Amino acid sequence: MDGASVLVVVPTLNEAAHIEACLMSILEGTVSLSKSSLVVVDGGSQDKTRKIVRRLAERHPQISLVDNPDRFQSAGVNRAVERFAGPKHHVLIRCDAHAIYPPDYIERLTARLMQTGAASVVTVMDATGETPFARAAAWIVDTPLGSGGSAHRGGADSGFVDHGHHAAFDLSAFRDVGGYDPTFSHNEDAELDVRLAQSGGKIWLDATIRLDYVMRPTLRGLLRQYWNYGKGRARTVGKHSLHPRLRQLLPAVNFALLVLTVLGGMFFPLLWVLPIAYFATVAAVSVLAAVRLRDPSGLWAGPSMAAMHNGWAAGFLFQIFGDFYRSKL
């Protein structure tokens, strides 16, 4: 496929620490990208993100910088499609500013899209970290204990799936379902995948096309990220009347039981068995990670796991009960 038929979109918001490495990994690894449109949609960055993108655009004229006043990535990708996708464009590639892309990433995605006839091709993320905390978080998130066995988190098998890390779309299929829901700040990818499936489109996970995803550098940042992930997933469940999967229910049930048993343990000490068992598991994960990584920073793996599980669960339950309460008003 001619590179001129490909539109690449990178949503950003305060990504000065990562945007140059991200864009250069795309540009340097893709021979045909000189003919493609590479659009950075920025949600109002207050750091040096925009300055960096403008500097790169002076050397690489295929780069465009566009304002995204709605701030959400979902709205930004839609805006780029509306403004830049013309009759010559047939493929939409969405890239993440926190990721580093492998050589020939664009060509391989477009080839797989054509070979499979899928509406979307998704990829596997291999987590990495730039701080001691982030390296421990990266180790645990790519295990079944950290991500619940999600196929696009460190998986090794290719095949048709319900959801994965968004990479390439047949642009016609993307437009036919209305693009992303621009009101979603998180989980907009899974929500779109639901509509793609409802329209008869298929999603292909290619485990041979992998990218490095940089984890949040602090516990607070990771907790906030997963809180938002949980809220977004709850919105998707509510919007489409879905039944959450077991791996999604378990963190929510565990979090609710932890809260109830911690509070109830003040009156019935036997209830403290569950919180003690959970935190013993967290401690064991930390020790195991430190041994496997041969680095004391691995001790952050347990707290990282707890932040991901409980941040996601708290956000999910907060959104579910909030939506239920609002529906009764």
In words, what does this structure look like?
The chain is an alpha/beta fold. It has two domains: about 5-215, Spore Coat Polysaccharide Biosynthesis Protein SpsA, Chain A (Alpha-Beta Complex), CATH 3.90.550.10; about 235-329, no CATH class. Helix content is about 50%, strand content about 15%. It has twelve helices and nine strands. It has helices at about 20-30, 50-60, 75-85, 105-115, 130-140, 145, 170-175, 190-200, 220-240, 245-265, 275-295, 300-329; strands at about 5-10, 35-40, 65, 90-95, 100, 120-130, 160, 165-170, 205-215. Strands 1, 2, 3, 4, 5, 6, 7, 8 and 9 form a nine-stranded mixed β-sheet that branches. It starts with 5 loop residues before the first strand and ends with a helix. The model has no long low-confidence stretch (mean pLDDT about 90).
Q: What's the arrangement of secondary structure elements?
A:
Layout lengths: L5 E7 L6 H11 L7 E6 L6 H11 L3 E5 L5 H12 L6 E4 L4 E2 L4 H12 L3 E9 L3 H10 L2 H4 L11 E3 L3 E6 H6 L11 H11 L4 E12 L4 H22 L5 H19 L8 H21 L7 H28 L1
Parallel strand pairs: 1-2, 1-4, 2-3, 6-9
Antiparallel strand pairs: 4-8, 5-9, 6-8, 7-9
**Would you state the CATH class of the largest domain?**
Alpha Beta
> CA-to-CA gap between the ends?
53 Å
If you average the pLDDT, what whole number results? Answer: 92
**CATH-defined superfamily of the largest domain:** Spore Coat Polysaccharide Biosynthesis Protein SpsA, Chain A
Shape: globular
Biggest sheet layout: 9 strands, mixed
Number of strands: 9
| Rg, Cα atoms, Å | 21 Å
Q: Give the ordered list of helices and strands.
A: EHEHEHEEHEHHEEHHEHHHH
Total count of domains: 2
Tally of individual helices: 12
CATH topology of the largest domain: Spore Coat Polysaccharide Biosynthesis Protein SpsA, Chain A
Structural class: alpha/beta
Low-confidence stretches: none
Strand content: 15-25%
Assembly state (oligomeric): single chain
Secondary-structure arrangement, i.e. CATH architecture of the largest domain? Alpha-Beta Complex
Helix content: 40-55%
Protein name: Glycosyltransferase family 2 protein
InterPro entries: Glyco_trans_2-like (IPR001173), Nucleotide-diphossugar_trans (IPR029044)
Keywords: Membrane, Transmembrane, Transmembrane helix
Transmembrane segments: 276-293, 300-321
